[in-house]
Amino acid sequence: MNITKYTKWLSFLGLIGVGLAGYLTYLHFVPEASSICEFSESFSCDKVNKSTYSELFGIPVAVMGLLYYLAMFVFMALFSFKKKIFEKLDLKDIFRGILLITLIGIAFTLYLTYQEIFTLHAYCLFCVVQQIVILIMGGILFRAYKKLS
């Protein structure tokens, strides 16, 4: 099965995610970051990215996202351009695992979106864009997995 078109898109989206999560990681650690998405009290990356919901077990959520997107970018780029590495592996099992991790990420993203809307009453533009990116990635991964079936 040729799923290269899917892996190229996933690699591209992973790279976009690296940029978004990298910027959010920067904002998380800079004491008073001047963010380009500080529009008002309701549209504030700093308010969201430095809230109590911005860390899980002491690890910034932005760092977790950065690691996820970086892994997706590297894995999918390798798959797209160096397929021989994966010849002896069961791609269906690999994509099932990646899809499961992504679905957990989507569920966590939905939880964080809920907190933005109903608890913080603030929205982070970069967070919303990365939420859209991971949803698209989940859809593409699902299609790639189905193609492998």
Keywords:
149 residues, single chain, elongated, 3% strand, 5 helices, de novo design (two linked rop proteins), 2 strands, two-stranded antiparallel sheet
Write the layout of secondary structure elements.
Layout: H1 4-29, H2 45-49, E1 55-56, E2 59-60, H3 61-81, H4 91-120, H5 125-148
Antiparallel strand pairs: 1-2
Helix pairs in contact: 1-3, 1-5, 4-5
Order of helices and strands: HHEEHHH
Domain count: the total is 1
The radius of gyration computed from the alpha-carbon positions, rounded to a whole number of angstroms, is 17 Å
Helical segment count: 5
Q: Kindly state the mean pLDDT as a whole number?
A: 90
Please give the order of strands in the largest beta sheet. 1-2
SS class: mainly alpha
CATH class: Mainly Alpha
Give the % helix. over 70%
Overall spatial form = elongated
Q: How many β-strand stretches?
A: 2
Largest sheet: 2 strands, antiparallel
Please report the distance between the alpha carbons of the first and last residues.
Answer: 9 Å
What does this protein structure show overall?
This protein has one domain: VKOR domain (de novo design (two linked rop proteins), Up-down Bundle), CATH 1.20.1440. It is 71% helix and 3% strand. It contains five helices and two strands; from the N terminus they run H-H-E-E-H-H-H. Helix 1 packs antiparallel against helix 5 and helix 4 runs antiparallel to helix 5. The mean pLDDT is 90.
